[in-house]
Sequence to fold (116 residues):
Amino acid sequence: MKFLVDAQLPVRLARFIRASGYDALHTKELPQENATSDTQINELSIQQERIVITKDSDFVDSFMTIHKPYKLLLVTTGNIRNTELEAIFSRNIQTLVNLFEHHDYIEMSRDAIIIH
Fold:
């Protein structure tokens, strides 16, 4: 399973996902880094079958209207320390991977996973 972590989330989240055994990129690692447009992120996610992890509701709009990106994980934790974010992912990474086998759009808050 492959992931693409959007700019509003920390680079260390991509590192954490890689350390968990999954392929993960952060927008900071792309040629245009965090200035990469949503359109480019969507296209890359489709070309490489990457799940976009974001806090940006614009991706929800594009997913609902044109089914881009490939798959979407919307993080709705609000402002949170990086250690707390990693703890949430640590508790839920295997569940998320399993859910993405059958679902395309998932939302994760501090204490819930919602399948859309």
Notes: Residues 70 and 100 are 11 Å apart (CA to CA). The beta strands are 2-5, 23-26, 50-54, 71-75, 105-108, 113-115. The two ends are 19 Å apart (CA to CA). The chain has a mean pLDDT of 96.
